[in-house]
Amino acid sequence: MSGDGLLVAVDSKVHRIPAQVKIVALFVFVLAVVSTPAANFWAFALYGALLVAALVVAKLPVPVVSRRLAVETPFIVFALLLPFVATGPTVDVLGLQLSQSGVLGAWNILAKGTLGVIAAILLSATTGPRELLAGLERLRLPSTLVAILSFMVRYLSVVSDDLHRMRIARESRGYVGGRAGHLKAIAGGVGALFVRSFERGERVHLAMQSRGYTGRMPLLGEVGATRAQWMEGLTISLAAVAVAVTARVVGL
Amino acid sequence: MSGPAIHVERLVFAYPDGRQALYGVDFTVERGERVALLGPNGAGKTTLVLHLNGILGSVAGGSGSGRIEIGGTGLHRDHLRVIRRKVGLVFQDPDDQLFMPTVRDDVAFGPANLGLRGAELDDRVREALVQVGMQDHADLAPHHLSYGQRRRVAVATVLAMRPEVLVLDEPSSNLDPASRRELADILTGLDVTLLMITHDLPYALQLCERSLLMDGGRIVADGRTRDLLGDAELMSAHRLELPYGFDPLSVPGPEGR
Amino acid sequence: MRFGRNRIKNVRVHVPDGFFDAPTSIATGLIAAGAVGFSLQRANREIRETGPALAGLTAAFVFAVQMVNFPVGAGTSGHLLGGALAAALVGPWTAVLVMSTVLLVQGLLFADGGLTALGTNITLMGLITVLVGYFITRALLQILPRRTGSVVPAATVGALVSVPVAALAFTGLYTIGGAVDIPIGKLATAMVGWHILVGIGEAVITAAVLGAVVATRPDLVYAARHLQPDLILVDADGNTSTVSPDKPIAARPAGRSLGIGVAITLVVAGGVSLVASAHPDGLEFVGAKLGFESAAKDSAVAGSPLADYGVSGIGNAQVSGALAGIIGVLVTIALGLAIAKVASLRTNKAS
């Protein structure tokens, strides 16, 4: 797992928007989606269109987005089960007795979950880890939390590489995996990984202290976003809010 | 300002897990000296250098005793800031040293803690990166650099604090021959007191006139690098071996410069 | 949370956006924010001493380990949640921060887990697993022999219990804020049943990891710091002396402060979920207040078979059931705390 997250390094209008604007925009958009009753199908179509427009402006390749959608899989399974297990009035579809509320609930989870994931992909694919941290800092996330996040992001690739090397070492000594008997081998390796990670954490702290660290991380020094940038970044989210409000007012 | 660059007296230390690493260490390094710290694995070399800026030891609340002076200033809890600015420590694994999101942030970390801001900070960062030839990589993330580049940036992070004493933990380990030579060129060009842990004996001979040999948590020999490396009995007694075909008496050392 | 027997690699199962209704998301968001704020305050001293790097590295470790699949048996594999393990290793407050950080990075950097569901995910996986795991660990440490090794069985039980409890909490949340009315008894049985299996995996891996850590660096295990033996120091002249080990983090039993934390959680959880259930849809509630109500009523909603979707789903019986579930979880925690407290008082008196 790379320390860059899902970042797609191209230059686009969306990439250039300051991270704090994008985080707020994502949050507002998802909130609008989540608060829309599931039966307002047209609203979800509009949300989808807004997102697709944003993906196009951000120049994101389709495979990146679709591959990442896999995180949703377990919930798709859950959603597909709903029509069969939910109670209440039922409808006949192709000879199957499906619960009406179950069908709607499945749609609800699928539509909102998918839109949420795509919106999140839009953020993570257009924002580098450093920008993201600077954005969270601008949004007044407690500095200790920003510092922990920063170290986590920095060392994600280092720890993952350690893990990867340990797996190679295990497999090159004839380990094939799958058998419960080997659980101990994995777990022992994970234990060693913790000791390594922890000791690295200690050394990093020593390195910080030896360069004068006294408990406060320097600010990442990102300049604030301009009003124009806020307006530009929030365009789609505000449109989504308008859709959500309309859906509420006109009902179905 | 008076007194030697580094003065260590009767230094004892045990780690919290019960391992005792130092059993009474004494030595002195004068200003401008370049000294190699040699010794087998587990001799206590890294533990010793971590004491020099008060990271380990009784100053940091650890279990140990002894006395350390840096440039005449006794190592005391009240002087830690001053000491840490004077002693620049380059860790063995550059990944331990480079913890900020980009090279620029990382080099700026030390001077920012010293109170530098704005243009002054930018100048200091640029100066340090130029010293190690990494000025064109300032905006990269550390994990996008090669190992040799990371080592050089690690040196820059410390140089940016303009230390009086530069302490390096195995600077040539895991470097390819070209990176190893480039680093030697950088280190030779610096005007600081240098203390360098190394297993790379030709490197010690090339860069340091004097060497300390450490084993079992004590200093067991202190002398000219060439003499120590030429003493076959001493070398084998402390698990030190010269590379195949290397004759310490026939190659030029730092004395000639 | 984990459903069914998915064996898809590198898919960590987090609640997505829209899975729970808005009030539930907001309520759990408040709980999570409160818990993180409280933990920041409590962990401040530790973090000042050991540095944020340690917590960050632990978070990177948890993140990396969550990607390791291990066989659970019956052809399925699981992965570590790591809450109980992190609590034993770095203490409950830092562990809450670590788990929240992991979830935040997964949500923002890897688009994994919804942003509006972040509070839910932190509450379930960052808060409940950590607190339950830690309480049980500490409580058992009072009973087990007083040595560092005892932390392994103690935390193993903690890990085992923490996962089904989180699953139960998930079921409770679903009862309150799930979009669809499904038989809660069945859901609870299925969730808890499956998660006992996951919990066994969690327990086995926690035991093995802690075993490995205790074998190499026993001083790193937060939950067992107070059980460390004294050190023997040999000075320059060969004299020996005994000193107590360097304690970078004081290992105080976090009894009372944890109690306060639980009390706050209980009040917040209870209060907010009552509000949430009284007004099943926050926006509708706000809408009614603002006068949109008539507009909504005049629309086609009234005649639709879906008219009371979301309202009929949350009858009073279910609300009380859900509350009972959550309160049950919290009472379990509180009980654990009480046992630990009483046990520690007794130990203190004895010593």
TrEMBL record, chain A:
One of its GO terms (cellular component) is ATP-binding cassette (ABC) transporter complex. It is found in: Cell membrane. One of its GO terms (biological process) is cobalt ion transport. The keyword Transmembrane applies. It is a multi-pass membrane protein. Its main location: membrane. Keywords: Cell membrane, Membrane, Transmembrane, Transmembrane helix. Pfam families: CbiQ. The chain crosses the membrane at residues 21-38, 44-62, 69-86, 106-127, 139-157. The keyword Signal does not apply. PANTHER family: SLL0384 PROTEIN. This is Cobalt ECF transporter T component CbiQ. It comes from Kribbella albertanoniae.
Automatic annotation (TrEMBL), chain B:
The keyword Amino-acid biosynthesis does not apply. Keywords: ATP-binding, Cell membrane, Membrane, Nucleotide-binding, Translocase, Transport. It is found in: Cell membrane. Gene3D superfamilies: P-loop containing nucleotide triphosphate hydrolases (3.40.50.300). One of its GO terms (molecular function) is ATP hydrolysis activity. Pfam families: ABC_tran. One of its GO terms (cellular component) is ATP-binding cassette (ABC) transporter complex. Signal peptide: none annotated. The keyword Cell membrane applies. InterPro entries: AAA+_ATPase, ABC_transporter-like_ATP-bd, ABC_transporter-like_CS, ABC_transpr_CbiO/EcfA_su, ECF_ABC_transporter_ATP-bd, P-loop_NTPase. Residues 6-241 form the ABC transporter domain. Belongs to the ABC transporter superfamily. This is ABC transporter ATP-binding protein. It comes from Kribbella albertanoniae.
